[in-house]
Design goal:
Number of domains: 2
Structural class: mainly alpha
Largest sheet: none
Number of strands: 0
Helix content: over 70%
Strand content: under 5%
Order of helices and strands: HHHHHHH
Shape: globular
Distance between the termini: 70 Å
CATH architecture of the largest domain: Up-down Bundle
């Protein structure tokens, strides 16, 4: 029987999807146990499994894309469609948070004092740390675009510099948001306002952390000559994800921080 050649990448059987799902399950279960009984063991174990699995899985994908040549033009087209569908699923994910927020804020119930923010809630000043974080995240969007143009133009030094700025801005954003949470005059248990605020901004913060890791891996790959002017989908996916995070933050800032106060 003759061998059939095609441009698609048939992925070899991998243990990482199963191992990662077990790690995520243990992390979630450990978080519940920590919230109830203040025991960190299972949470740390789950987080460690996720971290190690992420490193191993990233290593496999980088090897397939860079050294084995499996990411052909047809394979990259499929990856692009898949990643765009993933971002679309994230859009609907955040849409549910905004739905919960507007459901309560546009028609506050009697239990909330028929007003928004609810009685007893002292909202954060939208023109202090939130505005600074907005400027930082928008600046990071500009630097990641600068990096993309530098890669396409073959300017490696500028690409490394701009991507380093992007990663640093992501870390600064996360640090400022952590500071904001510590200094917030309300908590997640303070009515539906606290719940929607911390869930929406907290999950966005988690996406910023994931995006920062994504870009940091791209920075390491960039320094190791993994990207060319025409073959750099790993970075493209990271930049798409980062721009998505930027847009979500703009909606969060306008709706929850500014209008919602």
């Amino acid at each position: 029987m003759s061998k059939i050649y095609h441009p698609y990448h048939i992925v070899d059987p991998s243990p990482w999807p199963y191992v990662l799902s077990c790690g995520v399950f243990l992390t979630t279960l450990g978080a519940v146990i920590y919230f109830q009984y203040s025991q960190l063991t299972l949470l740390l174990l789950g987080f460690l499994i996720v971290l190690l699995c992420m490193i191993a899985w990233f290593k496999d994908v980088i090897r397939e894309a860079t050294f084995q040549g499996f990411h052909t033009k047809s394979a990259v087209t499929g990856l692009k469609i898949g990643f765009l569908l993933f971002i679309l699923s994230e859009v609907f994910y955040f849409f549910s948070f905004f739905w919960a927020f507007f459901h309560s804020s546009l028609s506050p119930s009697v239990e909330l004092g028929v007003m928004w923010p609810p009685v007893g809630i002292d909202p954060l000043n939208p023109f202090s740390v939130p505005l600074l974080n907005t400027a930082i995240l928008l600046s990071s969007g500009a630097t990641v675009t600068w990096c993309h143009h530098s890669i396409v133009n073959g300017n490696k030094n500028e690409a490394i510099t701009s991507l380093t700025f992007t990663v640093l801005l992501g870390i600064i954003f996360t640090s400022l948001q952590a500071f904001e949470y510590v200094e917030a005059p309300f908590c997640i248990a303070d009515s539906v306002y606290g719940s929607t605020f911390f869930v929406a901004t907290g999950f966005h913060g988690l996406h910023v952390i994931i995006g920062t890791i994504f870009l940091f891996v791209c920075l390491i790959r960039l320094k190791n000559h993994h990207f060319t002017r025409s073959h750099h989908f790993g970075f493209e996916a990271a930049s798409w994800y980062w721009h998505f995070v930027d847009v979500v933050w703009l909606f969060l800032y306008v709706c929850i921080y500014w209008w919602g106060c």
